[in-house]
Specification:
With 323 residues, the protein is α/β, with parallel strands linked by helices. It has one domain: TIM Barrel (Alpha-Beta Barrel), CATH 3.20.20. Helix content is 40%, strand content 14%. The protein is built from twelve helices and ten strands. Strands 1, 2, 3, 4, 5, 6, 7, 8, 9 and 10 form a ten-stranded parallel β-sheet that branches. Helix 2 crosses helix 9 and helix 9 packs parallel to helix 10. The structure holds iron/sulfur cluster (SF4). The site of iron/sulfur cluster has 9 residues, from loops.
Length: 323
Protein backbone atom coordinates (compact mmCIF):
# COMPACT_ATOMS: atom_id res chain seq x y z
CA UNK A 1 0.00 0.00 0.00
CA UNK A 2 1.15 3.59 -0.66
CA UNK A 3 2.56 5.76 2.14
CA UNK A 4 -0.08 8.48 1.98
CA UNK A 5 1.74 10.76 4.43
CA UNK A 6 4.78 10.66 2.15
CA UNK A 7 2.64 11.53 -0.88
CA UNK A 8 1.05 14.36 1.08
CA UNK A 9 4.52 15.75 1.91
CA UNK A 10 5.58 15.45 -1.72
CA UNK A 11 2.52 17.50 -2.77
CA UNK A 12 3.48 20.20 -0.26
CA UNK A 13 6.95 20.08 -1.84
CA UNK A 14 5.27 20.82 -5.17
CA UNK A 15 5.91 17.40 -6.67
CA UNK A 16 3.42 16.16 -9.25
CA UNK A 17 1.09 13.26 -8.38
CA UNK A 18 1.20 10.67 -11.16
CA UNK A 19 -1.79 8.84 -12.60
CA UNK A 20 -0.61 5.61 -10.92
CA UNK A 21 -0.46 7.27 -7.49
CA UNK A 22 -3.81 8.94 -8.20
CA UNK A 23 -5.38 5.51 -8.75
CA UNK A 24 -3.94 4.34 -5.40
CA UNK A 25 -5.34 7.46 -3.74
CA UNK A 26 -8.87 7.11 -5.09
CA UNK A 27 -8.94 3.51 -3.80
CA UNK A 28 -7.19 4.32 -0.52
CA UNK A 29 -9.01 2.31 2.17
CA UNK A 30 -8.66 4.76 5.08
CA UNK A 31 -11.11 7.30 3.65
CA UNK A 32 -11.03 9.67 6.63
CA UNK A 33 -7.24 9.92 6.31
CA UNK A 34 -7.50 10.61 2.57
CA UNK A 35 -10.10 13.37 3.09
CA UNK A 36 -8.18 14.93 6.00
CA UNK A 37 -4.93 15.16 4.02
CA UNK A 38 -6.73 16.58 0.98
CA UNK A 39 -8.23 19.19 3.30
CA UNK A 40 -4.76 20.07 4.61
CA UNK A 41 -3.45 20.43 1.03
CA UNK A 42 -6.35 22.78 0.26
CA UNK A 43 -5.59 24.84 3.35
CA UNK A 44 -1.85 24.94 2.61
CA UNK A 45 -2.17 26.14 -0.99
CA UNK A 46 -5.50 27.97 -1.02
CA UNK A 47 -6.24 29.08 2.54
CA UNK A 48 -9.74 29.17 3.99
CA UNK A 49 -11.43 31.42 1.47
CA UNK A 50 -14.20 30.08 -0.70
CA UNK A 51 -14.80 31.49 -4.17
CA UNK A 52 -18.39 31.75 -5.39
CA UNK A 53 -19.46 32.02 -9.00
CA UNK A 54 -22.83 31.92 -10.71
CA UNK A 55 -24.21 31.43 -14.21
CA UNK A 56 -27.01 32.61 -16.44
CA UNK A 57 -28.33 30.27 -19.11
CA UNK A 58 -28.17 32.80 -21.93
CA UNK A 59 -29.26 30.47 -24.75
CA UNK A 60 -31.18 27.31 -23.91
CA UNK A 61 -31.73 24.04 -25.76
CA UNK A 62 -31.90 23.02 -29.44
CA UNK A 63 -28.27 22.02 -29.43
CA UNK A 64 -26.92 20.17 -32.46
CA UNK A 65 -24.57 18.08 -30.29
CA UNK A 66 -25.41 14.68 -28.82
CA UNK A 67 -23.80 14.76 -25.35
CA UNK A 68 -25.52 11.89 -23.55
CA UNK A 69 -25.87 13.69 -20.20
CA UNK A 70 -27.36 16.90 -21.50
CA UNK A 71 -30.99 17.99 -21.43
CA UNK A 72 -30.28 20.70 -24.03
CA UNK A 73 -29.35 18.36 -26.86
CA UNK A 74 -31.83 18.25 -29.76
CA UNK A 75 -31.00 14.52 -30.01
CA UNK A 76 -32.91 13.84 -26.77
CA UNK A 77 -36.51 14.47 -25.79
CA UNK A 78 -36.52 16.41 -22.56
CA UNK A 79 -38.83 18.88 -20.99
CA UNK A 80 -36.75 22.05 -20.75
CA UNK A 81 -37.49 25.66 -21.53
CA UNK A 82 -35.88 26.58 -24.87
CA UNK A 83 -35.00 30.08 -26.05
CA UNK A 84 -32.64 31.62 -28.59
CA UNK A 85 -31.20 34.38 -26.42
CA UNK A 86 -32.07 35.66 -22.99
CA UNK A 87 -33.64 39.08 -22.59
CA UNK A 88 -30.90 41.60 -21.83
CA UNK A 89 -32.61 43.21 -18.84
CA UNK A 90 -33.34 39.84 -17.28
CA UNK A 91 -29.72 38.71 -17.69
CA UNK A 92 -28.31 41.93 -16.23
CA UNK A 93 -30.74 41.84 -13.29
CA UNK A 94 -29.78 38.24 -12.50
CA UNK A 95 -26.12 39.22 -12.37
CA UNK A 96 -26.82 42.28 -10.20
CA UNK A 97 -28.87 40.17 -7.78
CA UNK A 98 -26.13 37.53 -7.50
CA UNK A 99 -23.47 40.20 -6.94
CA UNK A 100 -25.53 41.66 -4.09
CA UNK A 101 -25.58 38.26 -2.41
CA UNK A 102 -21.78 37.87 -2.50
CA UNK A 103 -20.95 36.15 -5.79
CA UNK A 104 -17.45 36.90 -7.08
CA UNK A 105 -17.69 35.93 -10.74
CA UNK A 106 -20.54 35.48 -13.17
CA UNK A 107 -20.78 33.64 -16.47
CA UNK A 108 -23.11 33.73 -19.45
CA UNK A 109 -23.53 30.21 -20.83
CA UNK A 110 -24.91 29.31 -24.24
CA UNK A 111 -26.09 25.97 -25.58
CA UNK A 112 -24.86 24.81 -28.97
CA UNK A 113 -21.61 23.67 -30.51
CA UNK A 114 -20.39 27.26 -30.51
CA UNK A 115 -21.87 30.72 -30.18
CA UNK A 116 -22.68 32.59 -33.42
CA UNK A 117 -21.07 35.97 -34.12
CA UNK A 118 -24.54 37.60 -34.08
CA UNK A 119 -25.37 36.18 -30.64
CA UNK A 120 -21.94 37.03 -29.32
CA UNK A 121 -22.37 40.65 -30.23
CA UNK A 122 -25.65 40.73 -28.21
CA UNK A 123 -23.99 38.92 -25.31
CA UNK A 124 -21.18 41.46 -25.26
CA UNK A 125 -23.79 44.16 -24.70
CA UNK A 126 -25.05 42.22 -21.67
CA UNK A 127 -21.51 41.94 -20.28
CA UNK A 128 -21.03 45.68 -20.78
CA UNK A 129 -24.11 46.43 -18.70
CA UNK A 130 -23.10 43.94 -16.01
CA UNK A 131 -19.73 45.69 -15.77
CA UNK A 132 -21.45 49.05 -15.47
CA UNK A 133 -23.69 47.93 -12.60
CA UNK A 134 -21.50 45.49 -10.63
CA UNK A 135 -17.92 44.64 -9.68
CA UNK A 136 -18.35 41.06 -10.80
CA UNK A 137 -15.47 39.29 -12.48
CA UNK A 138 -16.73 37.84 -15.74
CA UNK A 139 -16.62 34.43 -17.36
CA UNK A 140 -18.03 32.96 -20.58
CA UNK A 141 -19.02 29.43 -21.57
CA UNK A 142 -19.95 29.42 -25.24
CA UNK A 143 -18.74 26.15 -26.68
CA UNK A 144 -16.06 25.58 -29.27
CA UNK A 145 -15.50 29.25 -30.01
CA UNK A 146 -13.11 30.61 -32.62
CA UNK A 147 -9.99 32.54 -31.68
CA UNK A 148 -11.46 35.83 -32.96
CA UNK A 149 -14.44 35.29 -30.63
CA UNK A 150 -12.16 34.60 -27.66
CA UNK A 151 -10.31 37.83 -28.48
CA UNK A 152 -13.58 39.76 -28.49
CA UNK A 153 -14.45 38.31 -25.09
CA UNK A 154 -11.02 39.01 -23.64
CA UNK A 155 -10.98 42.55 -24.99
CA UNK A 156 -14.40 43.16 -23.40
CA UNK A 157 -12.92 42.31 -19.99
CA UNK A 158 -14.03 38.68 -19.65
CA UNK A 159 -11.17 37.15 -17.67
CA UNK A 160 -12.25 33.49 -17.58
CA UNK A 161 -13.34 31.05 -20.27
CA UNK A 162 -15.16 27.87 -19.28
CA UNK A 163 -14.92 24.67 -21.31
CA UNK A 164 -15.31 21.36 -19.49
CA UNK A 165 -13.29 18.33 -20.57
CA UNK A 166 -16.40 16.59 -19.17
CA UNK A 167 -14.82 13.17 -18.61
CA UNK A 168 -11.67 11.11 -19.08
CA UNK A 169 -10.01 11.27 -22.50
CA UNK A 170 -10.54 7.47 -22.77
CA UNK A 171 -14.31 7.80 -22.17
CA UNK A 172 -15.39 10.97 -23.98
CA UNK A 173 -16.16 9.34 -27.33
CA UNK A 174 -18.63 6.97 -25.64
CA UNK A 175 -20.62 9.98 -24.41
CA UNK A 176 -20.49 12.30 -27.42
CA UNK A 177 -19.81 11.66 -31.10
CA UNK A 178 -20.56 15.08 -32.63
CA UNK A 179 -17.36 16.72 -31.38
CA UNK A 180 -14.15 15.55 -29.72
CA UNK A 181 -12.31 16.30 -26.54
CA UNK A 182 -9.34 17.38 -28.68
CA UNK A 183 -11.50 20.22 -30.03
CA UNK A 184 -12.20 21.28 -26.45
CA UNK A 185 -8.50 21.17 -25.59
CA UNK A 186 -7.75 23.37 -28.60
CA UNK A 187 -10.21 26.00 -27.27
CA UNK A 188 -8.72 25.77 -23.78
CA UNK A 189 -5.20 26.26 -25.12
CA UNK A 190 -6.30 29.17 -27.32
CA UNK A 191 -7.92 30.90 -24.33
CA UNK A 192 -4.79 30.37 -22.23
CA UNK A 193 -2.60 31.74 -25.03
CA UNK A 194 -4.73 34.89 -25.02
CA UNK A 195 -4.06 35.28 -21.29
CA UNK A 196 -7.48 34.11 -20.10
CA UNK A 197 -7.94 31.88 -17.06
CA UNK A 198 -9.65 28.63 -17.87
CA UNK A 199 -12.33 26.90 -15.86
CA UNK A 200 -12.63 23.26 -16.89
CA UNK A 201 -13.82 20.18 -15.10
CA UNK A 202 -16.34 17.49 -15.67
CA UNK A 203 -19.28 15.42 -14.63
CA UNK A 204 -18.83 12.32 -12.51
CA UNK A 205 -21.25 9.42 -12.32
CA UNK A 206 -21.71 8.99 -16.09
CA UNK A 207 -20.59 5.35 -16.10
CA UNK A 208 -16.86 6.06 -15.99
CA UNK A 209 -14.54 4.01 -13.77
CA UNK A 210 -12.71 5.42 -10.76
CA UNK A 211 -9.52 5.16 -12.81
CA UNK A 212 -11.11 7.32 -15.51
CA UNK A 213 -11.95 9.97 -12.91
CA UNK A 214 -8.23 10.02 -12.04
CA UNK A 215 -7.44 10.28 -15.75
CA UNK A 216 -9.64 13.38 -15.94
CA UNK A 217 -7.92 14.93 -12.91
CA UNK A 218 -4.51 14.31 -14.51
CA UNK A 219 -5.61 15.71 -17.89
CA UNK A 220 -6.76 18.92 -16.14
CA UNK A 221 -3.46 19.17 -14.23
CA UNK A 222 -1.57 18.73 -17.49
CA UNK A 223 -3.49 21.69 -18.96
CA UNK A 224 -2.79 23.88 -15.90
CA UNK A 225 -6.48 24.49 -15.21
CA UNK A 226 -7.06 27.00 -12.40
CA UNK A 227 -10.75 26.31 -11.72
CA UNK A 228 -12.14 22.77 -11.80
CA UNK A 229 -15.90 22.33 -11.46
CA UNK A 230 -16.90 18.86 -10.31
CA UNK A 231 -20.47 18.15 -11.33
CA UNK A 232 -22.29 15.09 -10.05
CA UNK A 233 -24.61 13.74 -12.73
CA UNK A 234 -28.24 14.61 -12.17
CA UNK A 235 -29.87 12.03 -14.45
CA UNK A 236 -32.48 13.75 -16.61
CA UNK A 237 -35.48 11.89 -18.03
CA UNK A 238 -35.24 11.60 -21.81
CA UNK A 239 -31.44 11.58 -21.92
CA UNK A 240 -29.48 8.35 -22.54
CA UNK A 241 -28.11 8.61 -18.98
CA UNK A 242 -31.51 8.88 -17.30
CA UNK A 243 -30.97 5.56 -15.49
CA UNK A 244 -27.31 6.03 -14.60
CA UNK A 245 -26.32 4.37 -11.35
CA UNK A 246 -25.59 7.06 -8.73
CA UNK A 247 -22.14 7.15 -7.15
CA UNK A 248 -21.80 6.39 -3.44
CA UNK A 249 -20.77 8.98 -0.86
CA UNK A 250 -17.28 7.44 -0.63
CA UNK A 251 -16.87 7.43 -4.41
CA UNK A 252 -17.75 11.13 -4.60
CA UNK A 253 -15.62 12.22 -1.64
CA UNK A 254 -12.65 10.08 -2.76
CA UNK A 255 -12.89 11.70 -6.19
CA UNK A 256 -12.86 15.20 -4.71
CA UNK A 257 -9.91 14.37 -2.44
CA UNK A 258 -7.93 12.78 -5.29
CA UNK A 259 -8.61 15.80 -7.52
CA UNK A 260 -7.15 17.96 -4.72
CA UNK A 261 -3.96 15.85 -4.48
CA UNK A 262 -3.50 16.03 -8.26
CA UNK A 263 -4.49 19.72 -8.60
CA UNK A 264 -3.28 21.18 -5.27
CA UNK A 265 -3.57 24.87 -6.19
CA UNK A 266 -6.75 24.83 -8.26
CA UNK A 267 -10.17 26.03 -7.26
CA UNK A 268 -11.89 22.65 -6.91
CA UNK A 269 -15.45 23.77 -7.39
CA UNK A 270 -18.71 22.27 -6.22
CA UNK A 271 -21.04 22.52 -9.22
CA UNK A 272 -24.15 20.84 -10.63
CA UNK A 273 -25.64 17.94 -8.70
CA UNK A 274 -24.43 19.34 -5.41
CA UNK A 275 -27.92 19.17 -3.94
CA UNK A 276 -27.79 15.39 -4.39
CA UNK A 277 -25.14 15.31 -1.66
CA UNK A 278 -26.69 17.93 0.59
CA UNK A 279 -26.65 15.60 3.61
CA UNK A 280 -22.86 15.25 3.46
CA UNK A 281 -21.78 18.39 1.62
CA UNK A 282 -20.02 19.55 4.82
CA UNK A 283 -17.70 16.51 4.44
CA UNK A 284 -16.85 17.51 0.86
CA UNK A 285 -15.93 20.95 2.16
CA UNK A 286 -13.32 19.20 4.34
CA UNK A 287 -12.07 16.91 1.57
CA UNK A 288 -10.61 19.38 -0.90
CA UNK A 289 -13.39 21.70 -2.11
CA UNK A 290 -12.67 25.44 -1.97
CA UNK A 291 -15.14 27.02 -4.35
CA UNK A 292 -18.68 26.66 -5.58
CA UNK A 293 -21.09 27.43 -8.35
CA UNK A 294 -24.03 28.88 -6.49
CA UNK A 295 -27.55 29.99 -7.41
CA UNK A 296 -29.38 28.35 -10.28
CA UNK A 297 -27.74 25.96 -12.73
CA UNK A 298 -28.50 25.64 -16.42
CA UNK A 299 -31.65 23.57 -16.59
CA UNK A 300 -31.84 22.35 -13.00
CA UNK A 301 -32.63 24.63 -10.08
CA UNK A 302 -29.64 25.21 -7.90
CA UNK A 303 -28.91 26.37 -4.43
CA UNK A 304 -29.85 29.42 -2.44
CA UNK A 305 -26.84 31.76 -2.31
CA UNK A 306 -27.50 32.96 1.26
CA UNK A 307 -27.94 29.39 2.47
CA UNK A 308 -24.71 28.37 0.73
CA UNK A 309 -22.82 31.21 2.38
CA UNK A 310 -24.22 30.18 5.77
CA UNK A 311 -23.15 26.55 5.24
CA UNK A 312 -19.70 27.44 3.95
CA UNK A 313 -19.10 29.84 6.83
CA UNK A 314 -20.23 27.15 9.30
CA UNK A 315 -17.60 24.84 7.77
CA UNK A 316 -14.85 27.37 8.58
CA UNK A 317 -14.55 29.26 5.29
CA UNK A 318 -14.62 32.97 4.66
CA UNK A 319 -16.27 34.19 1.45
CA UNK A 320 -14.19 35.87 -1.24
CA UNK A 321 -16.49 38.80 -1.92
CA UNK A 322 -15.64 41.05 -4.82
CA UNK A 323 -16.08 44.65 -3.64
S1 LIG B 1 -23.29 19.84 -23.24
FE1 LIG B 1 -23.24 21.70 -24.53
S2 LIG B 1 -22.61 20.92 -26.56
FE2 LIG B 1 -23.31 19.13 -25.39
S3 LIG B 1 -25.50 18.92 -25.92
FE3 LIG B 1 -25.38 20.16 -24.04
S4 LIG B 1 -25.41 22.29 -24.76
FE4 LIG B 1 -24.88 20.97 -26.51
Amino acid sequence: MIDIEKIYQSVLNKEKVSYTIGVELIHYPDKEKLYALADKIREHFCGNTIDLCSITNAKSGKCSENCKWCSQSAHHTTNIEEYELIDKTQAVNEAIENAKHGVNRHSLVTSGKKVSDANLSELLKIYKDIKTHTNLHLCASMGLVEVHQLKQLRDAGITHYHCNLETAPSFFSQLCSTHTQEQKIAVIRAAQELGMNVCSGGIIGMGETAEQRVELACALAELGIVSIPINILTPIAGTPLENAQPLTEDEILSTIATFRFINPRAHIRFAGGRLLIKSYQHKALRAGINSALTGNYLTTSGSNIDEDIKNFTASGFTININK
